[in-house]
Design goal:
The chain is an alpha/beta fold and about 160 residues long. The chain is built from 4 helices and 7 strands, in the order ααββαββαβββ. It has a 7-stranded mixed beta sheet. It is elongated.
């Protein structure tokens, strides 16, 4: 079986997912478009279990910035998508623009950007509605600039 149409569909899923993050359309409809109900995400600022927790976590994380730009490159599909499961990985460059209030708080010389280079590895499954992320792991490789100030309770917390 030719896996090329699945590779194109999975690459499109990745690109649309990243675009949706920058457009800040993070709600239940977003979750239905990109995630399984029982999705698990592992990020540098915490782990979530379930689509509702992932929506809250993602909206909170993005809300710490005025704007973002997520760029995906080198999408690789491992396994046979014909089975309805695949591992999809890619490299990412994620640029975050701090809120003016953050810059004022940090004072003169504050860097307006926080940029992260990362590796994404995801398990995806084919559902009746199309391909969806079932598990997502984000591993930062490098950063520049200052991250946002995170609440103490966000470190290492699992949301359900």
């Amino acid at each position: 079986m030719n896996a090329q149409p699945d590779h194109v569909a999975l690459t499109t899923l990745v690109n649309r997912f990243f675009r949706s993050l920058d457009e800040r359309r993070i709600d239940e409809e977003w979750a239905r478009t990109y995630l399984t109900d029982d999705v698990r995400t592992v990020t540098p600022i915490g782990t979530t279990e379930g689509a509702a927790a992932t929506v809250r976590h993602t909206a909170t994380a993005l809300g710490r910035f005025a704007r973002t730009q997520h760029v995906a490159t080198g999408v690789l599909v491992d396994g046979d998508p014909a089975t309805g499961r695949a591992i999809v990985s890619w490299n990412a460059v994620m640029t975050h623009v701090h809120h003016d209030a953050t810059l004022r708080q940090r004072g003169a010389g504050a860097t307006p950007l926080f940029t992260v280079g990362a590796h994404y590895e995801t398990d995806v499954v084919r559902t009746p509605a199309g391909w969806r992320f079932h598990e997502m792991r984000i591993e930062p490789v490098w950063t520049t600039g200052e991250p946002p100030v995170l609440p103490e309770e966000a470190h290492g917390r699992t949301e359900a």
